[in-house]
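Consortium newsletter contribution from the modelling node. Members have asked for a concrete example of what our holo predictions look like. Here is one, prepared for the S-adenosylmethionine complex that several groups have been discussing at recent meetings.
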Amino acid sequence: MALYILAFVIENSNRIIFLIDTDINDLYQPLLIFHTIMTKPYAESCAQNQQAILEVLQVNLPEQRRLLEIGSGTGQHAVFFSRHFPQLLWQTSDLPVHHPGIQAWIDDEAQTRVLAPLELDVLQSAHWGASHYDTVFSANTVHIMSWPAVEAMFTGVGKVLQSAGILILYGPFNYQGHYTSDSNARFDLWLKQRDAKSGIRDFEALNHLATQQGMSLTQDYAMPANNRILIWQKE
Ligand SMILES: C[S@@+](CC[C@H](N)C(=O)[O-])C[C@H]1O[C@@H](n2cnc3c(N)ncnc32)[C@H](O)[C@@H]1O
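And here is the predicted structure:
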């Protein structure tokens, strides 16, 4: 019978991994369930990219006051970034399945500038609400969404972004139909095998959607691991 080694380490008072050397048939499922309940969701990608993204945000967010994040995912980014912007209210959002995890990260943070997640499916026009923001931020979302969802996202951003507000988009993008690296080409293949409607988006197509919403490109940053940050500003 297989023996499994699971780690039991408490990190940051909340991330718990089990360390038990025993017969897995008896313990594996209950431990996994316990692990899921007791831990916050964690994305290694956020830990890896957040410092580089922060450095770009620090240049571009000093005047900003009210930010909407689309597709907050685990909630890690919201909590990490908001620590560095005491003047900023950070509104998280995502599909409901992610809300408990986002809320768990917010609850562990000793400040109140990260707001509880809104239900925002970009395809649902009613979800966009009546609030306005001077910044919209979204990381690693447009290659996950279908193209109609990306179109709906830009339409929604056009509605909620104030005049002179900025849209900040982080992720991998293609230029003139070309991948910027072999690893992005492999990633795109992986994405499409998993969901044929997903895939790395063309910068030009995104820029067209932004232009239709009265936004102009102001920055295009090269980021580590063949990612980019695109920033558009509304008229
Ligand atoms: C790869 S995750 C990125 C999460 C997080 N921003 C990050 O950088 O780790 C993609 C996110 O897009 C969200 N998403 C996918 N389709 C969406 C939709 N139609 N409306 C809003 N969010 C959506 C998912 O729920 C998920 O949180």
